[in-house]
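Appendix C. Worked example: Amino acid ABC transporter permease
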Amino acid sequence: MNQIFDYPDLWGQALWGTVVLFVGGGLIALVLGFVVAAMRVSPVPIARAVGAVYVNWIRNTPLTLVLFFFAFCVPLLVDVPRGSFLLLAVCGLGVYTATYVAETIRSGINTVPVGQAEAARALGLGFGQVMSLIVLPQATRSVIPPMMSVFIALLKNTTVAAGFSVVNLGNIRATMSENGENQLVTILLVMVVFVILVLLLAALQNAAEKKWKVVR
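Step 2, the predicted output written as structure tokens:
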């Protein structure tokens, strides 16, 4: 514990970097994943095809390569301020995680009986109304556990950004080593921090499940 008390600024910066990567990447993943999931179940063939290509292409690409693209290729295509590796890493994590979010939402949508959507369309409701009023409220209950697993994986994946000069809990070991601190102790402390963060996410999952559970 002395490592934490002796270097509070370093640990604070590392934890803050991890939180920014997680929250920023998670927000991008939720928005983009929802859009892609809607495309995957859309009645428009082109939309379904684009959604399928995106999911299969990005999801089957290693996260390291995705971050490589954002760190070294995106600045060549778009005018990005120097030193914006944190922003680029957030975007990379969001784009990568969005594929898993999309498939989780799509799986939840598939749990809703097709007859309900057909009955809604027979009443004159459009695709957007069917999704927002009939399908998604029911699908939400079934996607909470797998969705939380996706975000736990995102939290762990934030450490990959350490290889791209982004300060987070994934690279504090190297900093502590340079200061002559025991690396084993640092690794154990980082593990404890991640366990605490995962337990917080698990508590959030339990609260969401209680709120959305079906009363029988």
